[in-house]
Amino acid sequence: MITFENLTVSYRQHPALHHINARLLHGSLTAVVGPNGSGKSTLLKSIMGLQPASGGRISVAALRERIAYLPQLTEIDRGFPITVHDCVLLGCWPVQGAWGGVGTVALARVTSALHAVGLGGFGQRPIGSLSSGQLQRMLFARLLVQDADLILLDEPFNAMDSKTTSALLALVKQWHQQQRTVVAVLHDDAQVRAHFPQTLLLARELVAHGPTAQVMTETNLGRARTMAEAWDEAAEVCEMDQTQALQAAF
To answer: Could you tell me the residue range of the domain that residue 225 belongs to?
Structure first.
């Protein structure tokens, strides 16, 4: 589903991801882990095209309208004047577009999705009135309506209560059973080991990728911490990245 070929992504000419090579298979359920600042969120944004590569490339075997992306809650504007129902209805946007009509089938999908996440009866409430857990449930309902083949989740369970986390993990497992490809940035190692069969461990560079039990070893985790602590923020971009960036520009 996703292939990273020598991927480098830079901010202000300093790499946030450095020469990443990996393949995520269709229907896989993958956790992306690593120390703070290791490039986890950048990886998802690069898949979405929100952060361009400065070297290498990403190949995604899914149409753009069949990709769903859930950013961190801190990136959501909770003051935007929209109801829960209409926010979930935006899940139809990739297919319906700005001028497509919303029929009874789409409206029924919204109602069903809200009930599936435990928000039946919340449709007319403004999103600013929701708790963090309710807001995340609403965003998962929007993902249900979107019905994507590739689902990207950035810290979806961060600061969630255990009941909300269990409910949302059940949806993730359902997507996996439906052979959708799910990639989630996570911080809870126990959660990764319990629920995610594949793991990609980053420290700006790729430390390990494969079955979770083989990746989440003390040796690999210690290596990731050491690499993150040793990273030189003042280091220059390597010559290969500069050449590739010039080639991409022209």
So the answer is: 1-62+183-250
